[in-house]
Amino acid sequence: MLRMNFRQTLQAEKPLQIVGVLNPFMAMMAEHVGFKALYLSGAGVANMSYGIPDLGMTTLDNVLIDAERISQKVALPLLVDIDTGWEIPHTIREMEKVGVAAIHIEDQQVNKRCGHHPGKMLVSKEEMCDRIKMAVDARVDENFVIMARTDAVAVEGFEAALDRAKAYVAAGADMLFPEALTDARHYRIFNTVGVPVLANITEFGRTPLITRKELLEVDVDMALYPLTLSRVMNHAALSAMKELKNEGTQKDLIPKMMTRNELYEFLDYEKQEKEFNQ
Questions:
Q1: Most buried among 39, 134, 180, 188, by the most CB within 10 A?
Q2: Among the listed residues 50, 34, 31, the one whose alpha carbon sits nearest the alpha carbon of residue 42
């Protein structure tokens, strides 16, 4: 499968809307409705694939399983959350092998926390720069994007975070991910560092639900919606389970379902069946 280039995809729309998906079928639906880039969240892998909180307990292998399944099914570029990097050179090589187009690595300590939760602790600026340099040195494909995430705004303040961002770019980061900003105007300041900037528009966090139009006004390059789909799906599934248990029938749930025929259309069932039986 011809893999699309993440950097080139930035030219397709601004800001580039990147939607978080959990599996290949969600990736296929995202492609169908017109998204041009996909995301695999570390929290999504921990929560949905393993039923655990996002506390740095998942391994590289855990993330690679989901990353490979998604990247091998659709050609859209996939951005993957690698948390603090594990064994960084090995991580980068394995991500490239399974067809991932970009990763982001963060400056939290290994015992990390959700980016919008209190109690985050950072490594030094120098240690994070070393992480970035290791990732850059391990990269084989020059198109593979290494994005630096900084959680420093909530921990050390805005000026310290901006200072870190400049150092991360000098160390080789291709793009920036300043986490937990509370004002859209702050992104414009990060843009002065000179590389594409991502805005993480996650629900129930410190960052307001800034619209795409508002992000365009402050010159943001990428808008990330990391867990929107999984949160909607979880809410719908829990509501359906309660109704099924209480009512003893799914009759009233039918209008809320994707039909069998709609599923088969997405999967190209008839073509696949003919090829399988040849």
A1: 39
A2: 50
User: Counting Cβ atoms within 10 Å, is residue 228 exposed (0-12), middle (13-18) or buried (19+)?
Assistant: middle
The first and second tokens of residue 34, run together, are: 């017109």
* pLDDT level of residue 113 (50, 70, 90 thresholds): low
pTM higher than the cut 0.90: yes
More confident position, 114 or 145: 145
| Spatial contact of 15 and 212, defined as CB atoms under 8 Å apart | yes
Average of per-residue pLDDT across 214-239: 97
Residue 116: its pLDDT value, please? 61
Quickly state the pLDDT bin for 118 (edges 50, 70, 90): low
Sequence-distant (6+) residues with CB within 8 A of 202 are 116, 224, 225, 226, 227, 228
Show the CA angle centred on residue 52, arms to residues 19 and 253, nearest 5°: 60
H-state helical runs in 110-184? 125-138, 152-156, 158-170
Query: How, if at all, do strands 78-81 and 37-40 pair?
Result: parallel
H/E element holding 175?
Answer: strand 175-178
Looking at the predicted structure, is the pLDDT value of residue 117 above 60? no
